[in-house]
Queue: 3 jobs
Job 1
Amino acid sequence: MGRYILRRLITLAASLLLASLVIFALIEVTPGDPASFMLGLNAAPETVAALRDQLGLNDPLPLRYLHWVAGMVQGDFGLSYTYKVPVADLVADRLKISLPLALIALALSSALALPAGVWAASRRGRAGDALVMGATQLGIAVPNFWFAMLLVLVFAIKWRLFPAGGFPGWSDPLAALRALTLPAIALALPQAAILARVLRSALIETLGQDYIRTARAKGLSRRAALTRHALRNALIPVLTILGMQFSFLLAGAIIIENVFYIPGLGRLIFQAITQRDLIVVESVVMILVFAVIAVTFLTDLAYALVDPRLRRHA
Amino acid sequence: MKPSLALGAVLSAAALAAAVLSLIWMPYDITQLAIAQKLQPPSLAHWAGTDHFGRDIASMLMAGARTSLAVALVAVGIGVGVGVPLGLSAAALRGSWLDEVMMRGNDLIFAFPSLVIAILITAVFGPSATNAIIAIGIFNIPVFARVARAGALSLWTLDYIRAAQVAGKGRARISAEHILPNIANLLIVQGTIQFSLGILAEAGLSYVGLGAQPPTASWGRMLAEAQTMVTLAPHVALAPGLAIVVTVLGLNLLGDGLRDALDPRLRGRVA
């Protein structure tokens, strides 16, 4: 187990190193000078040159890369060109909105998908199964920003139950939750559809295993075999998807946050990209990639702990 | 044929037909503005109504189908063109450094937030249909590489491949002559899925203004424009969304149906 963890840790470090190189290179080939963007169209060339110097944009490439990585390791993600505040503060600020939004969406999608998946699997091939599967096909096909527009049209404009956009801040938690409700539903729907399908197929797979037949032969009812034995084993792929979805929800909210004018992480990246605030883009993308890689690492580790068979093959 | 497969084939064919037909005929000229006719509800003359410039929405939808399908199709082409040779060579040289590098590279690309990178690429290199194709296509590469590798690996253990090796055929030739035709099923199914994902991605990119630019019609941008007048004329926001849903649903049903039909072992299982 120790050797397994060590090997996985080395892969983790190598992935992060490679990811940082890719992101740095991507930002490097990006046309558009941050200094000219900051100073506007009418800036004198000398001022732009001075600012470039001050930002360290004239340093040799390897030095700038090392500077960036060394800073990140110490929790210093640099200074935003447009906001003139540390990127770490910006991200922390935005996460206060994006994290709860992602968590609510995740909770909603699980609450929808788990019963639906179990129900469909237990009724495999019957009308209930077809109904759930049809609904999930529809859920996957609906673009979430269009679904968001429809939600606004019905629940915000027609019935005035929820605000159509904006975020009032957490000083009034109830108003804040109301502002996050429609975006969370819009985010949760396609996720729930995917999750329900994964759970259904995982359940059907485990229901065909020998130990389920044994449990049934012992006299366990279908329902008991399903909840006591099959569900627990089927949850492994579901947890993997949940882990992946979480990081997707953090960054994937980029369009939904734009629909609802919610100042979250997605909107921060979007604005940073359009304003060429490349240090923000660079660092936020790195943080997101780190989150995905770390979540994958932790899930792998959890599996290896639970299931010794996975240690040898990984 | 299962009803869902038939439905998928019909819906996909309808979207394709609309796109192809738009090349030679559309009910109205969408480059002509007719402000006097603006925001009309669906009628006999304009069966999907008109938009804020008085353009016929049905005609715009047809032209939009052309953009959506073209972007997604070429993006799938990039994924297949680069990913499949990569996956085949990785499988042919199983366990080699190339295999290792490719698999790790694949894992790495999957860790990147694809939408964010696509937005970055299109914002930085200029919003256009071409850059949207590249941004979507790049993320198709690892998907096809993975599918091709997995499919090829299982074939390499089979006797007839061994026989070909013994007969003196090289690894590259075996991959092209024996492996590729046998993983075509897998690639077609994956191609359908990536096609539908590409349409959703294109819609998202053009919705935030980073896809095809005016005067090229696009479903995503129609939705973005509709957003401001959704209270005045809801039909303007409904039609493009429905077009996306119908096309994506059709392609997904087609992909699932094909997978079941091509591989009897998978019948009744859906992922």
Job 2
Amino acid sequence: MKLTLRVWRQKNAGAEGAMSTYEVDGIAKDMSFLEMLDTLNESLILSGEDPVAFDHDCREGICGACSLVINGEAHGPERTTTCQLHMRSFSDGDTIDIEPWRASAFPVVKDLVVDRSAFDRIIESGGYITAPTGSAPEAHATAVPKPAADFAFEHAECIGCGACVAACPNGSAMLFTSAKVNHLNVLPQGAPERGSRVLDMVGQMDSEGFGGCTLAGECATACPKGIPLFSITRMNREFVRAARKRG
Amino acid sequence: MTASTPHTASTAYTDYATGAPVVDTKAPQGPIAERWDTRRFEAKLVNPANRRKQTVIVVGTGLAGGAAGATLAEQGYRVVQFCYQDSPRRAHSIAAQGGINAAKNYRNDGDSVHRLFYDTVKGGDFRARESNVHRLAQVSVEIIDQCVAQGVPFAREYGGLLDTRSFGGVQVSRTFYARGQTGQQLLLGAYQALSRQIAAGNVEMHPRTEMLDLIVVDGRARGIVARDLVTGRIGTYFADAVVLASGGYGNVFYLSTNAMNSNATAVWRAHRRGAYFANPCFTQIHPTCIPRTGEHQSKLTLMSESLRNDGRIWVPKAKGDARAPRDIPEDERDYYLERIYPSFGNLVPRDIASRAAKNVCDEGRGVGPGGQGVYLDFADAIARMGRKAVEAKYGNLFDMYARITDEDPYEVPMRIYPAVHYTMGGLWVDYDLQTTVPGLFAIGEANFSDHGANRLGASALMQGLADGYFVLPSTINDYLARNPHKDEVGGDHPEAVAAVRETEERLARLLAVDGDRTPDSFHREIGELMWEYCGMARTDAGLRKALARIPEIREEFWRRIKVPGTGEEFNQSLEKANRIVDYLELAELMCLDALHRAESCGGHFREESQTADGEAARRDEAFSYAAAWEFTGTGEAPALHKEDLVFEYVHPTQRSYA
């Protein structure tokens, strides 16, 4: 396949960015989208140009590093991570736009690489269960009903990629935050910190400059791991419950 | 060793000397079940009030590093931690699928600490240290408790208790799991514990920062040189002890199931500074990976080997049979595993399944692009169990396969091929997980400690967390107590200045060559060479060929490498090229280790050492030791130090699967 790529190039956080156009040829259908970018970069290096910077690591759809907006959609046309998107989803002669996540809370580091450390700070504010090593009771001391365990797992699947923020018209991080709140709040082990967790995490989220949630639902559509939209409403319930208690 | 080839660089390299044996001075004597208690009791402790005065550097945030950083900080130490990823949550432990072993015996199926210990020593083909393995089995029980307390959502039964399954051919159900994402869930547990300590100010976290050298002062590890990958700034960081939790080195092979940026630089630089490297040739090649599709392939994806429980592996009987698999009649198919190993069939251990696949492909009977694949066929399973049942059992794996290959495995047999997956070798450590450089510790896949020549399924997660949560936090106390914080070492110390200068010169040199080959082209070349000669089957002649070629590639690398941009910016090409510098040295040591170990054991198969029926022949009389190599200079023959292995509890036997 022969393709035209229009790629966001930005030297560093402080620099102005712009779209640059490149032609790539000899792209195989079986290539992953990132392997297609590898091909572009190999030719850029040899011609003495700066290759396109992009985040990637496991290339198995689980580490959450890859983060491209492809033709206006976070992770591209299919519901998966960019690394698991293959070129057979495109046709010979296509023009493909490639941009970084666009959100004020995710400043661009270089080209397609953004800074998602705001997510880490949300977790640091309360996305854990306080259980210092060595203090744990026997694992079977507390049975966890299977529905609760499955619910926790469903939310724990979040890979922290940030597609939800990129897809949201408001740049909101509600889906990311609610996934962790719900994972931990439904478990008996998470109960003691249930209230402070949701209040602190939402507080941190707000202070990071993410936008507000208007339940547009784009986040859940873009999420490669299928975190459901009701995750947000469920967190809102947790929030109201905790706020009332705190008074 | 006497070399028979003419005098070349590689001849000099293979002309190694055997130095003094290494002795693990920390492993206690006495009954094996009491050794860990004994060691913990004998270890000196650091007064809680003094802990905050002591700093520990932890490199890496996977299961081992994340767990260690969180736990050391909880104990009151000041932790300074590093990862090259943009967040500590992305370390490659996250990609582990299958599960984590623990001797809980919840199934009442006869499991015990001793049985897990026995299985691990035997599975490692008698090349691991008994004391360490027993401790691992003991600690496994506590890991599950710890993870459940953190909220790790393990699979549960309807009664609310934890579910387990059997894994990797063992006869007990001791593997705990969280669907096919056990590594992810365990890692997030450790990451969250670490995050709590970061928020509390006990851990200073440096993401997107890569360790490029170790600083050794007066014979002790006192700090690291690291590069901020965003600004390019090279900084020095100092501590009372340094812990490497930087993972394995499977990416030497270019194509592996490792993450793209997993690398060997931290361990290799430590090796260059005096830490011995043990059993570098022990690599695990996993039989059920999705084959490569072409030159562009950047990494390989593993599928759980549970697929072999119901899938049947075959290739056409005739060479070069290009018919579609469904058009090949039953009597023209060779179900080679069932034919050669009638009693184990498709369930033979990983190394045997991998080697058999290579053999049939080498004969020209491989399938798919380039003939590098074999069929894993579920037609019989679907006929027997029904499509629904197959879907329930393997649905997620079938979906993953379909997404990557665009083929429907319910209709067309899957194609699989072996891929490099894990490295059992690593930095030599004693019972305390301390390397030969005092104050430098190595945990998780970065050390060589527990798996011998072959790792059992679901044991990597167990070892990473055992080291990180329980072993290191106990043993490092002893070192810190005996070496109380005294003199401040700073960036102006001559050793630090020298290490920074060397690093800067190396990067500057990479940028200055301005040649005509990309970093990836060299990585691919060294990877292909290693796969060919130091992969699934190794020979004296092949390894010598590789050893002759590696210095040539190294020379060409420094003449033709092209790295665009500067060092003072975010520069992924520079990161890559710098990692390749270390692969080009590590590869040489792996080949030498494989050459010197003229026996077959575990993942290391030497064609010269086979039984009459073509099975691996271990040679205990000559090779019952761990090989710890000492660095003497790039391209210079390293010195071999042997650690003799003593088996008091598990009597060495020869494996048989016929």
Job 3
Amino acid sequence: MSNNLEIEIKKPKLDLNYTSDKKPVHSDANPDVKPLPKVTIDGKTYEFRPGDTIMQVAERMKVHEEIPRYCYHPGMPIAGTCRMCTVEVEKAPKLMTSCSTPAADGMVVHTRSEKVLKSRTGVMDFLLTNHPLDCPVCDKAGECDLQDYNFEYGPSKSNFKEEKRVYVDATTKKLSDKITLNMNRCVHCERCVRFTDDVTKTNDLVMVNRGWHKELEATDPEKGLTNDYQGCLTDFCPVGALTMNDFRFKKRSWFLTKKASVCDRCSKGCNIEVHSDADIVYRYIPIFNEMVNGHWMCDEGRTSYNDFMNPMRVIAPLMKHEGEFHATSFETLLTDIKKHVREASSVELVVGTDATREEAALLKDKVPALFGKSMNVSYHNGFISSLAEDKKLDHMLRMTDKTPNTRGVEEQGLLALKNGEVTSDVVIFFRNGRAGIPKMKANQKVILWGVWTIDEVKNFPSQNVLAVIPGLATIEKAGSYKNADGIVQKFHPAITHRGSALSAHQVADVLKSLN
Amino acid sequence: MGTINISRKYTAKQKSYLPAIFVGLKITMKHFIKGFFFRKNVTIQYPEVKRDYSDRFRGMHFISVDKNKTENCTACFLCETVCPADCIHIVADEREDEFNPDGVKKEKKPVSFDIDALRCCFCGFCEEACPKDAIKMSGNYEMAVSSREEAFYDLDHLKRDIKGRGKIV
Amino acid sequence: MEMFDLIQMVAKVLLVLGVCLGVLPFIIWFERRGASWMQGRVGPNRVGPFGLMQPLADVIKFLSKEEFSPREVNKFYYYLAPIVALIAPICALAVIPFGSKAIIDGKEVILQIAPMDTGIIFILAFAGLEVYPVILAGWASKNKYSVLGALRGSAQIVSYEISMGLALLSMLIVYGTFSPQEMVTWQSGTFLGFLPSWGVFVNPIGAMVFWIAIFAETNRLPFDLPEGESELVAGYHLEYGAMKFALFFMAEYVAMIMASAFISTMFFGGYSLLPGMAEAVNFISNHFGFLETGRQNVKAFFEFISIFTKVSFFMFVFIWVRWTLPRFRFDQLMDLGWKILFPLSLINLVGVTIAVYFLNQ
């Protein structure tokens, strides 16, 4: 038996970077599959899919430092014009642009060699010859690639002694009502031109002239920019040349708190980052999600935070008394509503399709019992009458259904409101500021719940609005939406509500306490 | 406890106190003569005579203006960012086209520029952060106000022509 | 009483009171400006030229202030205290001679309001009264700080009165009289051939003890423990406002004037002419051709100038010392009074007595 003791215990050596020649322990050992080619970047070997460029390999494998880039953008075709991403490839005579050079088996790449750094310093020096020193004024400051790369790679002082180029006419040029161009800051990466050419396919931006006089212009200067994704231009512009009028000069970028959320402006449900300061939202920017929105986001959704930041939004419980609305407490308001509901002969609860799945479930299952009255619960969309009508408006993201959760609400077993018309005596209408308003008679008793502005309440089809129960907007609450592609997306509060509104669950709690 | 007993030994001369008293009387007489005959005082007649502080003195803020009385401030928020007391509040907006003798157009302007002097700790960081040398601290140290509201300096107050605005404008 | 006596009596009273109260504002002004000069400051210089009108402004302020008293005070003693405080030193001034005699309309006028033989006793009596306002004010105010001030004040004044009395006694032995006029006459001669025969040269230790005791009697720094504003707020007159406080304030300065006049008379020759003044009298009399009457009147005038100068000097010393020395601690005060000044004055008294006894033989 003594021989049996001499069993060599081999511990699998865990090497997540697959630098060893052995196959990864956890990889599927299929003998038919050819081993993936390997590239060595900064002394470490990575496997890659054939066809990847060096940049893509480095991105995917998270090489310790990002390779700087201006013209390269993962969502756009490769141009290779800025020369910022050059890397040293052994046995190559010159520095190669990592964005456009395909990785090859056995290639040895140095991204931070002395030669590369010197090249980058040179590129920065040239880019800065004409770049104005107006970072204090520039909206991009703080999130600017030029700033960041200059800090990291730039020359400490410029060799350029001559006068800087100034585009007198294009210092603040309105390309459209959404975008302002400052041509002085442009580094001619042409991301914007490629975006309109290849992503939106509207071809409404073009570079005119050559060299020193190269200038960005709208293809049709009369009409200016016309596409619906102009906000993206400001996202990927590496400098402050293109700025969005909606955000322009509102806030400096370093004050902004960034939280992920989901856009509720249409049924696409783009992933967004909510930028806020002191719980005031200043902008949405898209987050990359390959399944939903890619890198992009439409302008309509991008500016939709304004509805929630509207100063006329109802953020306190309102109760109608002698023809006037008065702010009150939730207890008083709900007691009063309960009385109305119980006295009514028939009550209807209409859920807007912008309610989260959780809210829809709550409204359907719990709320009628809490009011102590049987209700007819249905949903109302306001934009489409059936899901089949929800179509893409263009080849990218925009949808016909301007509410985020029609599928999610339907999933809870709710039925659409017949003919989009309410018939009962008392109607409770729950909505988060997105769903349309159903048809109704002018004297029907209505209780509004959710996100409303005072104007919407005053101009409501039925003049007999009894009360408004303020609710939380998408960015203020947690929940989930099921988007047009059937993907369920959870989100958490991005900001804290600044008024006294309560979430639907909290209102239900108050209702329960009243029983 | 940590009590230390010190025994002092005085000479008879010290014990009599008289020499010390006469020394004291001599000193006060010296000062009296200085004040009475030569008018040499260390105090100043404050409202008429102001104490001359160093050029680096950090007094009331002001915003420098150009020839057209336009503020040099471009609302870059750097002062607001660096302010440790959070006493600067700026609202920025697009600056409308105007004649500008210095050539390059100023893009941005402060719509409102408020300094809460009651919160301000006069550290001078804003002055240092300012890329346009717009916000500065003058030598003016007379900041008494009769109501809290007056201690909120708005843009007009900061731009106004006051004494001691500083030597470099 | 003849009409002339009445008129000359009233005139003398008015002269003394007028001079005494007339210089008060100036003394107060000088105290404040002098203090500021000694401290390198400017002092009150806003009201009038050199700030001379400042005391007037103060008077207006005092007069226009609300006349109020705390609810719990003993009203009678409370109001009595400042009156006593002012009247006692003014009364004592009555026996201070401010000149030998003037001859008006052929009649001799002794330049002293009350020419009495027991003048020193009179002064001591009224100087002793000064302890009463302190006690009355402190007790009647029903304030613990005032009471503390009053306690300190009474203990201090009583303690130092003994040394003062003994020092005075030694001088009385030297002079052999109680009459101020005769004392001044005694001091008109020369001592050791070159010094004026002032008490201070004859009995320097007595003069020093007396001088220190006088400071304690008038509650001036370094003996202002009854007030002690840093410890007792304002001591015995804490509860006094408006004109009542002004009376205390004036009383302090009147007491200083009285003390200065007293010490001048006792130790510094009183109204006896200062060196050089006799020549001036002669020169003026000869120049205008005055006879005996005129000469005497000119001499009386210079005598008045002499005592005025001496009193002014001592007033200055009062102020000078005030802004030089810090306040004593109470135990130091008592040590000085009982352990140093009292034995010293006793020894001095014995020594002087022996010396006078042998010299008279």
